[in-house]
Amino acid sequence: MTTRAPAVEARHLIKTYPGDVTALNGMDVTVEPGTVFGLLGPNGAGKSTTVKILTTLARPDSGTATVAGHDVLRHPDRVRRAIGVVAQNSGADPVATGRENLRLQGRLYGLKGGALDRRVDELLERFTLADAARRPVKGYSGGMRRRLDVALGLVHRPEVLFLDEPTTGLDPEARTAMWDEIGRLAGDEGLTILLTTHYLEEADRLAERIAIVDRGRVVVTGTPDSLKGELRGDAVHLELRAPLGEAGRSLLSGALTALPGVHEVLMDGRRISARADDGAAAMPALLAALERAGVGVAAATVARPSLDDVYLRYAGRRYAEAEAEAAALAADTLTLAGGAR
Ligand SMILES: Nc1ncnc2c1ncn2[C@@H]1O[C@H](COP(=O)(O)OP(=O)(O)OP(=O)(O)O)[C@@H](O)[C@H]1O
Ligand SMILES: [Mg+2]
């Protein structure tokens, strides 16, 4: 059996930004050739920083990385020739037309003459932009712009394609179309794709393997099914009428964990999450225990494990909370910056 070298291999990347911001705190990523790999994490987790280092746009403070077999620090030029990059924010020139953008990109990579014409036509067709090819990009819809971004990343037929949040800001219809397109790229063309996303559903749907990233490092990696499969039984979520105090929490934690078939009880404000061998069977006992403790329940649900539950298990907080935390932090930073002016 021959084993092929990984298409992307990053080891223990550390990156800090001025102001004591640790963007990466020991980031490890391995992507097998010809596969789609998803870096999944909330805002500020370090996804774009990882992509910037792997695409030679930023240097790590320490750690090593190779892409398509080339060291990103020693041979950045070789890495650049082997990769396509679709950044989180569009790189297309809004004043130029779709065709002009593609032609310019092609020329940057040394394409010319008939080969350039053919490649541009092929990409316009493939990304259903042929009709809009003569219009300036500033008049494109969000979905059209994002399709052009991906086409731009593919002009020189890269081995590895980096997609940083390919569908953020797209409406559901455009998002589904983009998912189909990414699926086709990986399937037909054997491209290696590393994508970042903060949509659990996107990672679940597109990536063969995912790494869940939290605060600058990978907390767990595996196939979406293996990660969900590792969680025993059902996810039980209870929403309380009032937040629990410290005393109530410690009292209840013991009482609930003692119930047969109930594990991993986590409490947070008004919410209790637990795993149960059989969620429906455990629910009456859970509700009775809460009633005995005088805790009012507003809502109760039982569900098969989702990636959200995987995140909760490994990062210790719910995905939506991590997103809200990052948003609050960003707002704070803005206020501080505004106040200092
Ligand atoms: N140029 C920079 N200067 C200072 N801090 C930065 C810079 N770029 C990123 N950071 C910080 O590093 C951390 C990681 O940012 P990064 O952009 O990698 O996260 P992300 O996972 O891509 O988030 P998002 O989902 O919002 O795109 C954040 O705390 C961010 O504020
Ligand atoms: Mg980002």
From TrEMBL:
Family membership noted in the UniProt record: Belongs to the ABC transporter superfamily. Drug exporter-1 (DrugE1) (TC 3.A.1.105) family.
One Pfam family linked to the record: ABC_tran
GO BP terms in the entry: daunorubicin transport; doxorubicin transport; response to antibiotic
Subcellular location: Cell membrane
Main localization, broad class: membrane
Annotated signal sequence range: none
Coiled coil: none
E.C. no: 7.6.2.2
Source organism (scientific name): Streptomyces brasiliensis
Protein name: ABC-type xenobiotic transporter
GO CC annotations on file: plasma membrane
Annotated membrane topology: Peripheral membrane protein
Keyword annotations of the record: Antibiotic resistance, ATP-binding, Cell membrane, Membrane, Nucleotide-binding, Translocase, Transport
NCBIfam families: drrA
UniProt keyword annotation of Cytoplasm present: no
PANTHER family: ABC TRANSPORTER (PTHR43582:SF5), LINEARMYCIN RESISTANCE ATP-BINDING PROTEIN LNRL (PTHR43582)
Residue ranges annotated for the ABC transporter domain, each copy included: 8-240
Listed GO MF terms: ABC-type xenobiotic transporter activity; ATP binding; ATP hydrolysis activity
